[in-house]
Amino acid sequence: MASRSETTRAESKPAKKTAAAFVARRVALTLGTAAAAGLTAGKKEKRLSGRAHEQLFEAASARSGLDGSDLLEYALAKVALEDDFAEKLISLEGSIDRDIDFGL
């Protein structure tokens, strides 16, 4: 019979693989969506240079599994594709008659 620590270690390995696979899929879907939206068409001609907080960079790199320009491209895609639901909802304020009967 396996000891408790052996069982815990054995159970955590598939969880790590599953989490890594999920992150890799999320990265791929984000970059794929950016490509489908035409955001990555053509040659890479924009050169960027800058400084970042070490902890921020390390956390983003660890979470995404990316580094360097791949991490930067992924971060830009996330911002470019960011959900604008809140802005759209707020813009609808006052567009529905307050006296409307929703039948509730």
Give an overview of the whole structure.
The protein has a domain at 4-36 and 53-91. It has 104 residues and is mainly α. Helix 1 (4-36) crosses helix 3 (68-80). 62% of the residues lie in helices and 0% in strands. The protein is extended and about 55 Å long. 2% of the residues are buried. It contains 4 helices and no strands. The mean pLDDT is 86. The longest helix is centred in the N-terminal third of the chain and has 33 residues, at 4-36.
Can you summarize this structure?
The chain has a domain at 4-36 and 53-91. The chain is 62% helix and 0% strand. It is built from four helices and no strands.
Q: Specify the helix fraction band.
A: 55-70%
Poorly predicted spans:
none
**Mean of pLDDT:** 86
Major beta sheet summary? none
Number of strand segments: 0
Number of H- or I-type helical stretches: 4
Please tag this protein with its features:
single chain; 104 residues; mainly alpha; 62% helix
Topology:
Elements: H1 4-36, H2 54-64, H3 68-80, H4 85-91
Helix pairs in contact: 1-3
